[in-house]
Design brief:
This protein has helices spanning about 5-20, 25-35, 40-55, 80-95, 105-110; strands at about 55-60, 75-80. The protein is mainly α and about 110 residues long. The protein has one domain (about 5-95): Winged helix-like DNA-binding domain superfamily/Winged helix DNA-binding domain (Arc Repressor Mutant, subunit A, Orthogonal Bundle). It has a two-stranded antiparallel sheet. Helix 1 (about 5-20) packs across helix 2 and helix 1 (about 5-20) crosses helix 3. The longest helix has 18 residues, at about 80-95. The protein starts with 5 loop residues before the first helix and ends with a helix.
Amino acid sequence: MKWLSRKEELLLLSIWKLQGNAYGVTIRRQLAKTTDKYWSIGAIYDVLDRLARKGLVTTKITSPLPERGGRSKRMYQVTNKGFKALDTVRQIQTAMWADLPKASVLGEEA
């Protein structure tokens, strides 16, 4: 299996954290809160589409909601394949970080 990009990893983790309330706006808020960075909605949907094509997330359209003027939401959920991809990334990162000093210690020498 091909590895996840950092954006794919962050979006999958956000969807997982949102537990059934993951749609474009809530995913964007979660990412912005966690990373303290601006995320354009277009960039998020591009990655979400790619995750769906890879089978790492499933999508479901909700019934029209009265508080949204009758508009539906596209909800996202991580698949088993998505969880396996996240686990692989976690294992690789753990192995790579093992036995390394904290990065802040290295920065103090400069």
